[in-house]
Amino acid sequence: MTGTGAPVAAIVLAAGSSSRTAPAHKLLAPDAMGLPMIARTLRAVTASQATPVIVVLGHRAAEIREAALAGTATGHPVQFVTAPDYAAGLSRTLSVGIEAASQHDVAGALICLGDMPLIGTGLINDMIAGFASHPTYPGAMPVHDGRRGNPVLWARALFPALMQLAGDRGARDLLRLHGPEMLRIPAGPEIAQDFDTPARLAEFARLFAGG
Prior knowledge:
Number of strands: 8
CATH class: Alpha Beta
GO molecular function: nucleotidyltransferase activity
InterPro entries: MobA-like_NTP_Trfase, Nucleotide-diphossugar_trans
Keywords: Magnesium
Oligomer: single chain
Structural class: alpha/beta
Protein name: Molybdopterin-guanine dinucleotide biosynthesis protein MobA
Pfam family, one: NTP_transf_3
Distance between the termini: 29 Å
């Protein structure tokens, strides 16, 4: 819960075609325990204080949905929505997720990327707690060694602007505008570590051997 009494949603973006790892789809790639990447990402998100958790689907939606459910924490429902124009770019996928979050009584939304499975529950909760203490901020971002990364938490006041974005730039333009005013949350190097090339998928296949 935030200082406004409303929770923060988590939006997991999982609609892309994963063209850089074709023919393999990165979100379906298994780790050392056989858990698909999207499920590993969802395991941390659904164990956090974020609610609701919304997953935006697009390319190979049915397969991604089935894989995602393998990582859902017990008793934590996940809302799946589909971005019909996901091929138009990340911004349209984000817009669909924000629109879904706006239907709930939330103070903001944490935007998570499906191919960043190293983001832990602790960081997610730290970001939500930090924003709860500063509810008038435009949002919160994790920072490591002076550099920002993902996920990014946006206050509800910016939902309309987020839904108007276009192209494949995500919210970069809004970050440039509002970034200086956003709360900084100390984090580790995982905030800049995604898995979107064949070499990185090979690395992911060796991770999480302990469970």
